Each structure stands twice: as structure tokens, then as C-alpha cells.
């Protein structure tokens, strides 16, 4: 059945179909609609679940953990400061191997206080031991609610899953969404069975201390099983496709990368926009493509290397900045590429912070910068500079000015729209006067601020 | 059958732990579990009892049990109760019990406790009150009494120990109109056991605050724990109380009762002077402690 639903509403439908036994809920914009819809479903009897009105996000996840320890399927949802408030419980739930599913409405983190979407909240918590997946649209949001339980509860995984939905861009934007029948959902997702639960025949202590002698075993098992989740995710998606007729792209999804030279890697709903720009630039002869990382934990390093092998330049577009370094997705992508022996130059584009728009022009400009990177790389090697044609083609539609050529072989983070003169105050890496400590700041350009430093 | 020395189970459900000699907290847990039985599901936050009982591979609860985040005793209990109920297991048969210290309850865990009481989740919350953060090495909590020297309220020339009075946690809890709340002392074990038993028979949220002296933090002999826990009651500094909320008592304002009313208080001075933590107090300040006791009872009588 198709209905016109917001991302929050679509996700609530997915949760309903997953039949959680316990829901702990605390409101925060832009997650609120999920817990509202679920409370209505419980009230009307559509969903037979214990709905616990907790008094904070810290308690929301703690309550979910207690319920999960009894062997009950559990759900909670949060966003931004709420996610950060429950941060310590994330490590408890993950270390305890409780397969809780939590929706996170991606939202900026204070200060400045801001309720709009970026991905600094969940990316700041990548290391807390949860599987992290990011939806592109509302259909995927609904489908992920079901698939997340199948992955989380798989016996060889047994880890919590955080499903990230872009705040407002998805949570409050309406799309036609196909809602599976309960019968299909039940066929796809059987009731939760686990040995990681209280047992009244043979009582267990779940969650305890483990000193240095034993601790590393737990950490290793956690890591091993997180890595193994990659295979499980593929299996789950195959099964989902068989039952529901919708196939997803696994850990990372690609668009027109097969013959692409310039590839932009992105996360979440911005992929739709990037796809459109790729189509436009392709028409103008720019060999570009896109990779959308669906899962950030486990990190799809192998898949990424397959998709990006032999590319001329790779950009990472993300709604996050790790101050004083670079975007966190960029760090992860670079590490994977380095491990995979991929020597393509890479650039980082930071945009969409605090709900800022990422425009088609900015994305075109990002491709133009990648092309310029290739051009200077080619010139340095004395090779024909095809990159300059791509750069002109891409930049022609983006702005009047051709993007600055940038030195090769350097990892660079570009915060979209930072004034150029700010960047110029720092010596470029590899130039006289450059110091190693200057390397990250001088490459950073913010999208959405003009060359005079005025916010557009 | 009421739990007492004759009827209490010989089964040990909390043993093999590494609590200090003379630990009052471990006695509170051990005795409560004898009453609640093997079907009880326990949750313990960071604190002495989890630190001494949950060391892999030496796990000391014969019951189902789990560690919780420090602030989350009550919310984890709520989750356990909801999970069991969702699977058709009533907390009447499978009691859901938390054991948290004074800091874990009156400080960092107070919000979660208030939330659980507000929801009236079917759980039993037992606060073993040893009057400071003992697990981290004797730091002041909001249940540390005036004058107690702790490692964060060191008695010196300028300040003689803890400058604040013990927070009235029992009244805070009772103000929620909780179905059942009680104070107890491991010095009066039959009273404590009876309260645990009564709490387990009541549906909804139950709370027991049991005084559990800590020889390490109080500066008392390891074989004096029970005596000092008795004396705290006898001198009037720790009234043994019961509050039955409106749903249980049938009275709109609930029913507050004194479980043990000393005919004559034993001297506060003896109680104070027998503990190392109070050794810096002047006679004047000890008189102040006695005044606190008198005020406490005056306030209490007004509510009875």
C-alpha cells in the first residue's frame, strides 16, 4: 500500500511492522513525530507494545537495554543533543551486545543551538560500537527499520543498530512510500530469539566487569562481529528483496561510477541531489559518478576500494567537520583508500552544517575542483591535461571563475563556502613557509560563503 | 510466612564477592535476595556492590543480574519489567529489583528514579545507603551527613567535614505518592526483611532506603557494622519509617508510620564519637547534630 508519508512517519510504520515488544520514548525535534505516531499505534491497538514514557534520552536507551536483556525486541529514537546525552549508554548497549534498533534524526549539535539537519551528532559517536546506517529517502527509512532488526538480531552480529535519517530533509519531507503488509514483514522478520538474555532455568549475569586480562577478548569479539555484519547485511538485503521486491545497494551504493574519473562520495539524503548533478555533468562530457555510503559502521572499505579503483580523483561531501582536522567521513574514506593502495588524490567538501542547503552549483563546483586536482596532477606528470576540460565544463555551470588549481598528493578538506582569503592567510602545503601544522586549516573551504568573506 | 531468623532461606544468592570486611551493603543485598528468591532479576549501577560482585569470571549473583550505567538503575529496571511483562512474566512472580548506593540514587540516579515512580513501574528499588561514594574512595554524596569527613570534604582547620545535612530522600520519594516506601537499617534485619517482603507483595514502584554502614568510610571496626547501624536508629538519627501511598493505604494523603519508635533516644554523642569520620567535630557541633535529630522528629511527628 502506498501512502504519502514523512520520513518520521515512514519509519514509524517500519517499526510497527517489526513488532517491538518495548518502546522507550523521549521527544526531541526532529525525531518527535516518530514517537507520536508510535504512541498512537499503541493506543489504537495497531501495535501491541509496552510504551515507556521515560524522562530523558539517557533513560530511553537504558530502558531499552533492560528490556532487551529480557529477550524482548526493543525500539527507541533520538536526535542530536539527545543522542549525545545518551552517549555513555551507547557503549553499554553495544558492549552488552543488545540488538536494540534506534532511529536517529540527524541534527546539528549546539552551540549555536540549531534544530536543523547535519550529521555531526551520529558521526561524533561512530566509535561507540553501534552499526550505523544512513537512509537516502523515506522508503529506505521504512525499509531500514525492518532490515535493522534483521541485522542486529542475527546471532553472529548481536549488536545495536542506529538508523540515521536526515533531520527535516527526510524526517519532515513527504514522499510516496510503499508500506509492506504485516504478513510480508512477518515473513521477512521472525520473532526475536537470543541466548543473550535472562534465563530463569539457568540465571545469567549479563554485563559485568572484565579486567585487562579478559577485556581485550570482549573488544576483539565486538570488532570481529562488527566486521562480520557486512556479510549479514548483504544476506539480509537479498532476503528483503525476495520478500518485498526492493533491492538496496549493500554497504555502499554507486551511481555511474563504472566509467567515471571523478567520484564524489556522500552520505544520506544529499545523494539525490548529487545524482542529478552527475547526470547534468555527464551530458556536458564530465566523466563523474557518485558513491553513497549507506553504512559507516562497519565501514565498507573493501567495497569502496572496488568502486573507486583507478579513479582520477575522489571527493568526499559531508555534513560534518571534526574541528581542527577534517570531515570524519573523509578520514575514514582516506584510510580505506590508503589501505587499498588507491593513490587517487582526494578532497573534502564540508557543507550542509546546521541545515544549510547544499546547492547543485556547489556540487558542480566540487566536481570542478576535483577536475582541477586531476589537471594539476596530469600537468605535473607531463600528461595531456584532460582534467582542465572537465574543470571548465563543470565550473562553467557553477560560477564565472575557474576553480584554483590545487597541488596534488595532499589530502585536503574544503569547507564549502569559506572565504578564499581566509584560506589564503595560511601557506599552502608544499609551498615555502608551509608547516605541517598548517596543512589542514589551509585546505578548508566552507561552501556557501563568497570570496569576500560575506555569507551568501 | 514472615521472613525472620527461623524462616529465612539458607540459599545464598549473593556470595563469593570481594566486599570489604564488615560491609553493610553486601549484607543488605544478600538478605534482600534471600527474601526475594531466585526468580528476582537484579540491576546494579556502578558502585560498591557491582564492583565487588561482577568481576568476570567470578560473577557473584546466583540470580539473573546486570550492570547498569551509573544514572540508570531505575530506567534499566523499568526496561526489565516492561520486557518481562511483554513476555507474560509478571513482576509479582519475577521481582525486578535494583541495588544502588546513596550517590547512585540521591545524586546521579535521582532523575531516573523519579521517572520510574512517576510511571509507577512494577519495580523494587533498594538504596543501600552508606552515606558517601565509597567505591571511588569515600567522597561526599548528598546523603553524607553533616560533619562527616570524606576525601572531598576533608576535615581540617577551616571546615570540619561535610558542611551540608543529609538530604531527605525518603520524603522526596514519598512526595511522588509512590505505592510503598520505607527506611530500614541492616542493624534491624527483621524489620528490613519484613519491608522487602511487603514491598515485593505490592504492585507498582517500591523504594527502600536501607542504612548500610561502611567500616572503611565511617572509621569503625569491621565487627561494629551491625551495632552502629542499630545505634543510628536508636539515637534517632535514622527513623525507621513506612509510607504507603494512596493506592495502597486508601488514604488520599497516604499513610506514614514509624516502624520503631525508641522510647528514649540513645545519646547522639556516643553515636558520633564512636566513628572516625566525625572525629573533628566540636562538642558544639555534636550538639548541632542532636538538634538536627530533634528537628527531624519534629517534622516527622507533624506528618504522622
UniProtKB/TrEMBL annotation, chain A:
Residue ranges annotated for the Pyruvate flavodoxin/ferredoxin oxidoreductase pyrimidine binding domain, each copy included: 14-237
Gene Ontology MF terms in the entry: magnesium ion binding; pyruvate synthase activity
An annotated GO BP: response to oxidative stress
SUPFAM superfamilies linked to this entry: Thiamin diphosphate-binding fold (THDP-binding), TK C-terminal domain-like
EC number: 1.2.7.1
Oxidoreductase as UniProt keyword: yes
Superkingdom of origin: Bacteria
Annotated InterPro entries: PFOR_II, Pyruvate:ferred/Flavod_OxRd, Pyrv_Fd/Flavodoxin_OxRdtase_N, THDP-binding, Transketo_C/PFOR_II
Record-annotated Pyruvate:ferredoxin oxidoreductase core domain positions: 260-363
Alphabetically ordered keywords of this record: Oxidoreductase, Pyruvate
Similarity comment: family membership: Belongs to the pyruvate:ferredoxin/flavodoxin oxidoreductase family.
Name of the molecule in the record: Pyruvate ferredoxin oxidoreductase alpha subunit
Species classification: Bacteria, Bacillati, Actinomycetota, Coriobacteriia, Coriobacteriales
Automatic annotation (TrEMBL), chain B:
Statement: the UniProt record of this protein carries the keyword Oxidoreductase: yes
Enzyme Commission number(s) of this protein: 1.2.7.1
MF term (GO), any: thiamine pyrophosphate binding
InterPro entries registered for this protein in UniProt: PorB-like, THDP-binding, TPP_enzyme_TPP-bd
Thiamine pyrophosphate enzyme TPP-binding domain segment(s): 47-210
Keyword Repressor: no
Record keywords: Oxidoreductase, Pyruvate
Enzyme class (EC, first level): oxidoreductase
Pfam family, one: TPP_enzyme_C
UniProt name for this protein: Pyruvate ferredoxin oxidoreductase beta subunit
Annotated organism of origin: Parvibacter caecicola
Amino acid at each position: 500500500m502506498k501512502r504519502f508519508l514523512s520520513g518520521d512517519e515512514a519509519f514509524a510504520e517500519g517499526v510497527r511492522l517489526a513488532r517491538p515488544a518495548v518502546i522507550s520514548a523521549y521527544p526531541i525535534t526532529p525525531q518527535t513525530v516518530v514517537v507520536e505516531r508510535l504512541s498512537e499505534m499503541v493506543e489504537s491497538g495497531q501495535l501491541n507494545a509496552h510504551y515507556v514514557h521515560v524522562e530523558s534520552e539517557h533513560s530511553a536507551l537504558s530502558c531499552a537495554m533492560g528490556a532487551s536483556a529480557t529477550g524482548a525486541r526493543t525500539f527507541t529514537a533520538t536526535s542530536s543533543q539527545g543522542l549525545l546525552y545518551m552517549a555513555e549508554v551507547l557503549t553499554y548497549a553495544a558492549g552488552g551486545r543488545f540488538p536494540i534498533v534506534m532511529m536517529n534524526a540527524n541534527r546539528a549539535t549546539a552551540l549555536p543551538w540549531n534544530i536543523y539537519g547535519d550529521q555531526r551528532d551520529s558521526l561524533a559517536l561512530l566509535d561507540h560500537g553501534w552499526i550505523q546506517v544512513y537512509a537516502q529517502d523515506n522508503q529506505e527509512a521504512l525499509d531500514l527499520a525492518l532490515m535493522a532488526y534483521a541485522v542486529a538480531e542475527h546471532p553472529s552480529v548481536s549488536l545495536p543498530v542506529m538508523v540515521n535519517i536526515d533531520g527535516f530533509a527526510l524526517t519532515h519531507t513527504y514522499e510516496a512510500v510503499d508500506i509492506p503488509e504485516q504478513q510480508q514483514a512477518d515473513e521477512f522478520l521472525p520473532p526475536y530469539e537470543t541466548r543473550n538474555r535472562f534465563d530463569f532455568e539457568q540465571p545469567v549475569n549479563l554485563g559485568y566487569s572484565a579486567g585487562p586480562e579478559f577485556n581485550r577478548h570482549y573488544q576483539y569479539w565486538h570488532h570481529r562481529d562488527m566486521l562480520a555484519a557486512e556479510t549479514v547485511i548483504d544476506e539480509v538485503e537479498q532476503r528483503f528483496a525476495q520478500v518485498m521486491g526492493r533491492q538496496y545497494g549493500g554497504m555502499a551504493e554507486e551511481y555511474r561510477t563504472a566509467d567515471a574519473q571523478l567520484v564524489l562520495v556522500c552520505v544520506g539524503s544529499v545523494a539525490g541531489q548529487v545524482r542529478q548533478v552527475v547526470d547534468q555533468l555527464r551530458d556536458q562530457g564530465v566523466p563523474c559518478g557518485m558513491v553513497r555510503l549507506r553504512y559507516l559502521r562497519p565501514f565498507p572499505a573493501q567495497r569502496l576500494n572496488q568502486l573507486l579503483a583507478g579513479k582520477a580523483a575522489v571527493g568526499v561531501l559531508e555534513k560534518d567537520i571534526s574541528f581542527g582536522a577534517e570531515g570524519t567521513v573523509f578520514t575514514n574514506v582516506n584510510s580505506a583508500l590508503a589501505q587499498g593502495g588507491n593513490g587517487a588524490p582526494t578532497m573534502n567538501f564540508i557543507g550542509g552544517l546546521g541545515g544549510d542547503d547544499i546547492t547543485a552549483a556547489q556540487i558542480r563546483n566540487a566536481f570542478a575542483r576535483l577536475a582541477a586536482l586531476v589537471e594539476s596532477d596530469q600537468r605535473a606528470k607531463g600528461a595531456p591535461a584532460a582534467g582542465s576540460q572537465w574543470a571548465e565544463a563543470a565550473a562553467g555551470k557553477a560560477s564565472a571563475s575557474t576553480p584554483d588549481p590545487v597541488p596534488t598528493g595532499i589530502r585536503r578538506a574544503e569547507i564549502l563556502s569559506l572565504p578564499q582569503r581566509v584560506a589564503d592567510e595560511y601557506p599552502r602545503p608544499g609551498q615555502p613557509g608551509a608547516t605541517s601544522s598548517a596543512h589542514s586549516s589551509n585546505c578548508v573551504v566552507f561552501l556557501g560563503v563568497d570570496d569576500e568573506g560575506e555569507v551568501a | 510466612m514472615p521472613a525472620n531468623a527461623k524462616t529465612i532461606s539458607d540459599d545464598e544468592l549473593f556470595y563469593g564477592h570481594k566486599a570489604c570486611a564488615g560491609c553493610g551493603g553486601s549484607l543488605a543485598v544478600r538478605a534482600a535476595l534471600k527474601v526475594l528468591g531466585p526468580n528476582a532479576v537484579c540491576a546494579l549501577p556502578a558502585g560498591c556492590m557491582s564492583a565487588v560482585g561482577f568481576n568476570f569470571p567470578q560473577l557473584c549473583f546466583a540470580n539473573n543480574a546486570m550492570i547498569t550505567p551509573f544514572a540508570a538503575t531505575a530506567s534499566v529496571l523499568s526496561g526489565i519489567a516492561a520486557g518481562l511483562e511483554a513476555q507474560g512474566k509478571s513482576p509479582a512472580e519475577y521481582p525486578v529489583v535494583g541495588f544502588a548506593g546513596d550517590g547512585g540514587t540521591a545524586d546521579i540516579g535521582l532523575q531516573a528514579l523519579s521517572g520510574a515512580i512517576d510511571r509507577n513501574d512494577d519495580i523494587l528499588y533498594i538504596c543501600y545507603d552508606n552515606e558517601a561514594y565509597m567505591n571511588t574512595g569515600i567522597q561526599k554524596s548528598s546523603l553524607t551527613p553533616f560533619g562527616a569527613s570524606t576525601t572531598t570534604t576533608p576535615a581540617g582547620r577551616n571546615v570540619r567535614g561535610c558542611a551540608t545535612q543529609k538530604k531527605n530522600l525518603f520524603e522526596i520519594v514519598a512526595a511522588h505518592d509512590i505505592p510503598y516506601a520505607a527506611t530500614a537499617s541492616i542493624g534491624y534485619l527483621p524489620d528490613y526483611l519484613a519491608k522487602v517482603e511487603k514491598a515485593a507483595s505490592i504492585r507498582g514502584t517500591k523504594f527502600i532506603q536501607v542504612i548500610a554502614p561502611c567500616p572503611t568510610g565511617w572509621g569503625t571496626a569491621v565487627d561494629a557494622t551491625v551495632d552502629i547501624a542499630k545505634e543510628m536508629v536508636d539515637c534517632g538519627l535514622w527513623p525507621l519509617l513506612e509510607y504507603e501511598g494512596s493506592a495502597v493505604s486508601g488514604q488520599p494523603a497516604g499513610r506514614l508510620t514509624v516502624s520503631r519508635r525508641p522510647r528514649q533516644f540513645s545519646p547522639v554523642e556516643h553515636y558520633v564519637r564512636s566513628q572516625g569520620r566525625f572525629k573533628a567535630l566540636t562538642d558544639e557541633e555534636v550538639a548541632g547534630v542532636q538538634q538536627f535529630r530533634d528537628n527531624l522528629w519534629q517534622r516527622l511527628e507533624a506528618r504522622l
